[in-house]
Amino acid sequence: MHPSPGAEAGRGVRPYADRDDGIVQLSFTLPVPDSRAARTAGLEIAANMGLGQAEVVHSQPITSGYTYLVIYGSFDRRIDMESIHRNDFDIEYMDHDEVDSFAASRIGRPVVVVGASTGSDTHSVGIDAMLNLKGFDGHHGLEAYDAFSVHNLGSQVPNAKVVAHAIEVRADAIVVSQTVTQQNLHVHNLTELVEMVEGEGLRGRTLLACGGPRISDELAKELGFDAGFSKGTFPNHLATFLVTSIAGRAPEPSPG
Amino acid sequence: MNGRSLMQTLAGARRVAFVGLAKNTGKTVAVTRLIEELDTNGRSLGITSIGRDGEEFDAIRPQIRKPRIVCPPGTLVATAFPLLRRSGAAHELLGETDVWTPLGRIVVARFLRVARCEIAGPSSAAELRVVIAEMLALGADSVIVDGSIDRRAAAAPSIADAVVVATGAVLGAEVKDVVMKTVRAFGWASVARVKDLRIRSLATAAANRSVMMFAERVIPLPNAFALTVKPRDLRLLLGAGTDPVLLVGGVLPESLLEALLPYAKSDRIRVVAGDPTKVFVSSKSIDWYRSRGVAVEVLERARLGAVTVNPVRPPWEHLDSRRLCEAIDAGLKHRVPVMDVMAPSYLAGMAEAA
């Protein structure tokens, strides 16, 4: 480990380019022709974001009527590392084999998982990475585990269909992904799923997890999910969460 | 604004649920205001949540510092035990419940001093009902449920005696946009209650299963019928009798109403759900479907207590509080008190009353 010159106790941190200077780089596109006006507008944006000493270091037309800008500026405040509390989802992850043997001894039957990329999202990459046999980056998805029985419904699946399928296969868990969304549409879409599961009276016995680049564990819990997974998640993380949560739940009352 | 405080508006409701129509509509501020008013008036209260809330930072915009819920001494709380322990708040543990969440077991405790604590209550409405009853039995005069964003489950009439809906400038750039979106988002709360006794007694007998009722006969429907129905099945089904009433056991999705539209031309079709939290209609309004022959009704209505309005849109814009409140009040046809609990006029009224 290198020493962290900007982060000694009590001082807090800020962006570091050279000697604790707070320099950040922004890049974005404006829907106006490349011009002095476009560069000035870019500086205004940086100022409104609270960046000091902003300068345009690069601008170029990218197509007719659009300008791409790169701006440097300095962020003068500090973030107190002490104030950042850790996620609750701070568990030790098991690997593939550990998950399977844990599930075999503590659950004793396959955990039924229904997964989908829901709503208008056409991207199935997130859910496929978690569920498909192939997985990604050398990590097999849940289909490769003995611990799970997986139903991957694909992309653009309406919430109603996810819930109907969960009822049909008596799912223990529903896992949905939202890869690309606009205008916080993912928030509404995710809440709707929670509400539908609740409306069918399944919430008490169904784990709900969601994932995507704009989803944090905090947000997921605020929306009523049991956990949220963001960038850097591997299938064994999700698998660990599912089997430990199901094993840790109070015993289900026997029907009748 | 009618000059009454939030507490006075909700008088008589022992179980109050807060629902926000979006993030940053000021739900937590409204919860905090009601807690203060109840405490000032010497009322003992309990608090819990569905999902989770009370985080210091907003989960979508971390630069927004959220007001943490401050609980006066004596407040009862139902939350996952690990959060309570971690908060360091001085408390007396009153009991463990049988309700579990991935965060841990839900316990009921009494705060011994002023506490700031993240509260994570049960995940399901049924569990929420149990936990609320427990706090009332332990002596709370009223129990507040902090609902998560857009979570309607807490607003079910079986859970809440009064629902407070938080809306605000975050929904739109201008007053008229906010009013339109607020009114639309209220569709679920304004569904009519079915009065026909034949339908009501059939619903009781059906016990959360879906059935099709005609003048001539009653046809039981398969599990999850409303979620999976195909237009072809509907044609066969609707041909089996006259004066159709579709009783939906669980969730009523908009796709069902859309599928029914072509068959509603000659004959009005009534669709009955248990309560408004089961009705999922967002692209068109309930009135729109009714005018085209598909009439949605519920067995029990939600009990709306108040609408709170946050005129601020993060990070820096805001609309005129009074104009916005009046416009929303008019848009909701004066059915429910509308107030901005941070407006100087509201606070002045409270100071006068105290």
Describe this structure in words.
The complex is a heterodimer of chains A (256) and B (354). Chain A is α/β, with parallel strands linked by helices. Chain A folds into 2 domains: 23-74, Defensin A-like; 96-248, 3-Layer(aba) Sandwich (Rossmann fold), CATH 3.40.50. Helix content of chain A is 30%, strand content 21%. Chain A has helices at residues 36-48, 96-106, 125-131, 159-168, 185-199, 217-223, 235-248; strands at 23-30, 52-63, 66-74, 111-117, 148-152, 173-177, 207-211, 227-229. A 5-stranded parallel sheet of chain A has the order 5-4-6-7-8, with helices on both faces. In chain A, strands 1-3-2 form a 3-stranded antiparallel sheet, covered by helices on one side. In chain A, helix 3 links the parallel strand 4 and strand 5. In chain A, helix 4 (159-168) packs parallel to helix 5 (185-199). Chain B is 30% helix and 27% strand. Chain B has 12 helices and 23 strands. By secondary structure, chain B is of the alpha/beta class. The relative contact order of chain B is 0.16. In chain B, the strands form 6 sheets. In chain B, strands 6-7-5-2-10-1-11-20-23 form a 9-stranded mixed sheet, sandwiched between helices. A 6-stranded mixed sheet of chain B has the order 12-19-17-15-13-14. The mean pLDDT of chain B is 88. Classes of the chains: A alpha/beta (256), B alpha/beta (354). At the A-B interface, helix 4, helix 5, helix 6 and helix 7 of A face strand 3, strand 6 and helix 4 of B.
Distance between the termini of chain B: 18 Å
CATH architecture of the largest domain in chain B: 3-Layer(aba) Sandwich
Enumerate how many helices of chain B there are, as a single number. Answer: 12
Strand tally of chain B: 23
Describe the strand arrangement of the main beta sheet of chain B, using strand numbers. Answer: 6-7-5-2-10-1-11-20-23
What helical percentage do the residues of chain B reach?
25-40%
Biggest interface: chains and residue counts? Answer: A-B, 41 and 42 residues
- Helical proportion of chain A, percent range: 25-40%
CATH superfamily of the largest domain in chain B: P-loop containing nucleotide triphosphate hydrolases
Radius of gyration of chain A: 23 Å
User: What order do the helices and strands of chain A follow?
Assistant: EHEEHEHEHEHEHEH
CATH class of the largest domain in chain A: Alpha Beta
Can you tell me the number of structural domains of chain A? 2
Question: Oligomeric status of the shown chains?
Answer: heterodimer
Distance between the first and last residues' Cα of chain A: 59 Å
Beta-strand residue fraction of chain A: 15-25%
* Number of structural units classed as domains of chain B: 2
CATH domain topology of the largest domain in chain B: Rossmann fold
